[in-house]
Amino acid sequence: MPFKKKRHIKSMFNASDYMLDEKIRQAAAHYPALDFIPEWKQLEGKLDIELPVKKKRRRLIVFWLLFAGLLVWDILHCLHWQFN
Q1: What single DSSP character describes residue 51?
Q2: For the chain, what percent of residues have pLDDT higher than 70?
Q3: Phi-psi group of 2: left, alpha or beta (phi > 0 → left; psi -120 to 50 → alpha; rest → beta)
Q4: 2, 24, 48, 72: which one has the fewest Cβ atoms less than 10 Å from its Cβ?
Q5: pTM, rounded to two decimals
Q6: Using CA atoms, how far apart are residues 36 and 42, in angstroms rounded to an integer?
Q7: How many other CB atoms are found less than 10 A from the CB of residue 21?
Q8: DSSP class per residue in the chain
Q9: How many other CB atoms are there within 10 angstroms of residue 24's CB atom?
Q10: Contacts of residue 23, Cβ cutoff 8 Å, sequence gap at least 6
């Protein structure tokens, strides 16, 4: 039984890049109008009404942590100078 030569993937497809590009252009030209796709601004407005997103309060948390850190540092600094 003779061994069969393995075909390369290139030999399976005889379409060159140009032919593939032409097929894609033809398909895009014959594609129906995109009227069924909603306007993104309208969709975003509807989503904001139906599914509101809560704003994150990270800035407030960072502010309070910074304030608490400065307060603790000031208290420790004053205690250090008071007992020395």
Answers
A1: S
A2: 74
A3: beta
A4: 2
A5: 0.33
A6: 13
A7: 11
A8: -PPPPPPPHHHH----HHHHHHHHHHHHHTSPPGGGSPPHHHHHHHHHHHSPPPPP-HHHHHHHHHHHHHHHHHHHHHHHHHH-
A9: 10
A10: 15
